[in-house]
Write a structure and sequence with these properties.
90 residues; mainly alpha; 6 helices; globular
Length: 90
């Protein structure tokens, strides 16, 4: 009986997380390219880190290509390695 009382006081989840769908799988017209910096900036954090799949909702295949394109854009200085770019207000 005491085990039943303990279960009734467990926390219930308040939020229902909807399943995330890969934006690149659903829309075939989106071009994932290192020159498309507006798209790539949405996929990195303010510190300049690449956002994980659980945040962006991309599939594993496209997450690998996103990481590759972000690294290419960083290498030719289209994207910053750190978040200091946004802090400077550019």
């Amino acid at each position: 009986m005491s085990a039943f009382k303990k279960r009734s006081f467990q926390k219930r989840s308040r939020f229902y997380s909807r399943p995330k769908v890969c934006q690149f799988c659903t829309d075939k017209n989106v071009d994932l390219d290192y020159k498309n910096t507006d798209l790539l900036r949405r996929l990195i954090t303010e510190e300049g880190k690449i956002r994980p799949r659980r945040q962006t909702g991309t599939c594993a295949r496209h997450q690998r290509s996103v990481a590759k394109e972000i690294k290419r854009a960083r290498h030719i200085a289209l994207l910053p390695y750190t978040g200091e770019y946004w802090e400077a207000g550019r």
